[in-house]
Amino acid sequence: MQKAEEQYQTLYKLQPEPVTTPEIKGYDFNQGVDFDALLKSYANFGLQATQLSTAIDLINKMIHWRMGPNEDNEDPNTRCTIFLGYTSNMVSSGNRDIIRYLAQHKMIDAIVTTAGAIEEDLMKCLSTFHKGDWQANDKEIRLKAICRIGNIYVPAANYGKLEDWLLPVFQEMYKEQKEKGTIWSPQSMIKRFGEKINDERSIYYWCAKNNIPVYCPALTDGAIGDMMFYFNYKEEGFICDILQDVVALNKKAMYAKKSGLIILGGGVVKHHIMNANIWRNGADWAVFINTGIQYDGSDAGAKPSEGITWGKLRIDAEYVKVFSEATLVFPLIVAQTFAKHFQEAKRV
Q: Which UniProt keywords apply (predicted)?
């Protein structure tokens, strides 16, 4: 009987070679419950677990390079600028508290997000969100003045509380525009919101306190825009200049000696960060977490390598996409990166 190797060669015309990559292996719970060891085992787990492990490794590289490649080299010319992008549902969910932790300890350098992520952070300082039901009868809960975000319930009254809080802030900002010539941008508005909310539970309180810029190119796409629309009936000519922020974000990327991207979701937040990195011929490291697929041509679904063709990622960039809904994996990533390497991560 022919040996299997001979059959491959004679019958199938194959030349077998030994596989030298690590063996696929899972965690052995006979060793007890050790979450650190469990997550380390993901490196050779296979499928999306291995993608998650790669994401952890890349973010740890970003952290390591924030003040140079080693402890003895704190040359700011080697510093990695970390850009964090996320969609509004991240703030609707418990990931709001994970992001707040990063801002609180100055572990990131810039944020790009959407209008919902601004207003919902403020609303959570003024009221509460609640666990809901994916299968809720939406007609019934509409009659109960409850808004639904997946399995999260938002009392419609929260928007009234936001309006009561926000309109006087707009009035104050408008007065500064008229009397001092201040021209507000989304970033400077969000900084003022963070200062005024004065609540340590808020992401943007900490961003204002720690001078972390928050860019929101679609600030009018939500309740904040609705309230600007309403305010404009009373005080015409209130200006929000988006160009200021485009210039600031592009320059932040342009002057970054190394650039690391962490992007939860897609759409405007992903593209805005990646487009800014064109000005430096692409980012050095990138971690994408979303459930999009490439076949509809969407920005969220695009393979990371597509960004190389646009100059959004460097040709030699290291990157990974984790196909997952981000509330499942982002807390685990932060646990194994920023929180685990706390002293290094909070250095600036």
A: NAD, Transferase
Task: Give whole-number Cα distances, 189 to 3, 118, 171, 217, in Å.
Answer: 73, 11, 12, 12
User: How many Cα atoms are found within 13 Å in the side-chain-facing hemisphere of 259?
Assistant: 29
Give the mean pLDDT of 211-224.
96
Q: Can you give the pLDDT at residue 221?
A: 95
Return the DSSP state at 149.
E
> Residue 276 is inside which H or E element, if any?
helix 268-276
Q: 137-153: per-residue pLDDT in tens?
A: 999 999 999 999 999 99
DSSP assignments along 120-131, one per residue: HHHHHHHS--EE
CB 86 within 8 A of CB 327: no
The residue annotated as part of the active site, out of 196, 270, 312, 321, is 312
Determine whether 278 is exposed, middle or buried from the number of CB atoms within 10 Å of its CB (0-12, 13-18, 19+).
middle
Q: Is the pLDDT of residue 197 over 90?
A: yes
In whole angstroms, what is the distance from residue 1 CA to residue 257 CA? 62
Is 312 catalytic? The answer is yes
Average pLDDT on 203-219 reads 97
Q: Distance between CA 228 and CA 162 in Å, rounded? A: 12
Choose among 302, 309, 308: nearest CA to 288.
302
70 confidence band (pLDDT: 50, 70, 90): low
